[in-house]
Write a structure and sequence with these properties.
By secondary structure, the protein is mainly beta. Helix content is 0%, strand content 47%. Strand 4 and strand 5 form a beta hairpin.
Length: 125
């Protein structure tokens, strides 16, 4: 079992930055691929960014590529999402996820077993 807790969301203006954190417990963090998803009201949950358990290779949604950076601190069992140049369309609840089969890095939400409760990010025009 894995427990995930997100933090760092808030209300910001267009062009501002936020750094989201996801603290994990219950399993060796370095062996888990991690991903960030987001969900806006009335929309489906969408993949934002992911980082592989072994190689630390990353992937990003086209909508955030070049603006967001995912990283991890294995010593602190924490994964981060640095969000720069925020836009109103980034407004959503952001979720941390892990527990995919065989630790694969995937952009399919249903492949992940463990989820945090989410943190709200609101970007005003």
């Amino acid at each position: 079992q894995v427990q995930l807790v997100e933090s760092g969301g808030g209300l910001v203006q267009t062009g501002d930055s936020l750094r989201l954190s996801c603290a994990a417990s219950g399993r060796t963090f370095s062996r888990l691929s991690m991903a960030w998803f987001r969900q806006a009201p009335g929309k489906e949950r969408e993949f934002v960014a992911g980082i592989h358990r072994d190689s630390n290779s990353t992937q990003y949604a086209n909508s955030v590529d070049g603006r967001f950076t995912i990283s991890r601190d294995n010593a602190e069992n924490t994964v981060y999402l640095q969000m720069n140049s925020l836009k109103p369309e980034d407004t959503a609840v952001y979720y941390c996820a892990t527990g995919s089969p065989l630790g694969i890095l995937t952009d399919v939400a249903l492949r992940y077993t463990y989820w945090g409760r989410g943190t709200q990010v609101t970007v005003s025009p």
